[in-house]
Amino acid sequence: MSIDLDSRPCLAPGCRMNEKTQQPRTLLMPERALRLNGPSLEIVERCDTKHTVAQIIAELQQLYSKAEPAKVEQDILGYLALLQKERALDFEP
Amino acid sequence: MTSAIANPLALIAELTHRCPLHCVYCSNPLELAQRSTELSTEDWSRVFQEAAAAGVLQADFTGGEPLTRPDILSLIRSARTAGLYVNLITSALPLDESRLEALVEAGLDHFQLSFQGAREETAQEISGTKAHAHKLRVLEWLKRHRIAVTLNFVIHRRNIEQLPGMLALAESSSATRVEFANVQYYGWAFANRDSLLPTREQLMQSIDFLKKAQERLAGKIKVEYVVPDYYAKYPKPCMGGWARKLMLVTPSGDALPCHAAKVIAGLSFENVKNRALREIWEVSDAFQKFRGEAWMQEPCKSCDRRALDFGGCRCQAFLLAADATATDPVCSLAPQRPKVDAILNEINSAGMRLAPAADAPLTKPAWLYRPNPS
């Protein structure tokens, strides 16, 4: 299932991060929790219905300027696909 | 108190054993808690605080029927205030639309709705209650709220032919997760086991059907299927291992490593009214009992899989082999596996006679129905 780069990801109903004061930052969903650190936190924070997938990729490529841009894109798409498969993410057109 | 023991991740809050249903597969113990012994709102609030402080991320509100607690909104609020993600495991029977709205407003994150079948007659036979039509209404209400929804279909010989109908029901709902969970044999399910275990043929067909459904619905609905472990080659890593990831607090406040632990003779359990949750988790006798590997017998003791499945389920080892330290008898390597094979042979020889076709009239077995404690 390929991801539309112009779509805007957002957390699915009932999927949310824990409070900003809670460490480690975690993505919570039914019967499951994913620890968020570094890149994964940056990605999930941008799943806000405002950022397109393309924008998330561009912003992270800037943040992680020492990393291979193609690898950053690959990793982001892989992570978004994983979250979508878990039904933690929806994509708005 | 620093410790080498990893913190618990989820708290199973068994709020009550009261329930308007009488399901023949209920995993509650045969001895049900009386209402007068239930923890107060304040007790639970403190438990949630202690759980979050100990590192717990999620609370599963279950029972019995958690919605029979008149303080359910306060309980949800205090769990959220404590910083927990709140799952509700419910039959939805004592629920109207305004109360559902109130649950969501109170901060409920995830609504898991049980189904006993795809048809009213089956649901009524299995639960001893008329609940199916109401659940369908609740499915419609859920579409109007921003909340995670899971449908949980409890599967056994009497309804396994209804998988297509169950799947259709799920697809017409707003659920993003569906669990087809074969009954596991504890509590009332253990007592009714011989009427619940599916035949091998039914099981193989169901696996085939659901695998295809999983692929078709990938990305839209997460389909999960749990097979009865009597038919498995290796045992389940029960609860993620004894006292490794999950802890349960009973309606009266006893802290257990799992819902069935009281069947094991010789274990004593501490109560959250008398001791802090983190202490119970880290050092109490019952929680320490089957941690590590020192308690293991052969073949578990030297088995390559021991860090994967921890030798299976201690409660099941006790129920089937009268020894909580034994290899879980469902394991193909267990000395007691022949016991499980004998049970399956019985089911599979008599089974086809007892398994109804999808539209055949049901001939009711002699069920032991779970009563509602006062």
Short characterization:
The complex is a heterodimer of chains A (93) and B (374). Chain A has 93 residues and is of the alpha+beta class.
Walk me through the structure.
The complex is a heterodimer of chains A (93) and B (374). With 93 residues, chain A is α+β, with helices and mostly antiparallel strands. Chain A has three helices and five strands, in the order E-E-E-E-H-H-H-E. Chain A has helices at residues 39-45, 53-63, 69-85; strands spanning 8-11, 16-17, 26-29, 32-35, 89-92. In chain A, helix 2 crosses helix 3 (69-85). Chain A starts with 7 loop residues before the first strand and ends with a strand. With 374 residues, chain B is an alpha/beta fold. Chain B has 14 helices and nine strands. The two termini of chain B are 40 Å apart. The chains are: A alpha+beta (93), B alpha/beta (374). Chain A binds chain B through residues 1, 12-16, 18-19, 22, 26, 28-31, 33, 84-87, and chain B through 9-10, 57-58, 60, 83, 85, 87, 109-112, 145-150, 176-177, 218-219, 221-222.
Which blocks of ≥5 consecutive residues of chain A have pLDDT under 50?
none
From the N-terminal CA to the C-terminal CA of chain A, the straight-line distance is 15 Å
Shape of chain A: globular
In percent terms, what proportion of residues of chain B is strand? 5-15%
Q: How far do the termini of chain B sit from each other?
A: 40 Å
Which spans of chain B have pLDDT < 50 for at least 5 consecutive residues?
Answer: none
Mean pLDDT across all amino acids of chain A: 95
For the largest beta sheet of chain A, what order do the strands appear in spatially? 2-3-4
Helix content of chain B: 25-40%
Shape of chain B: globular
Q: Helix/strand/pairing class of chain B, anyone?
A: alpha/beta
How many strands, which pairing sense, and closed or not: the largest β-sheet of chain A? 3 strands, antiparallel
Oligomer: heterodimer
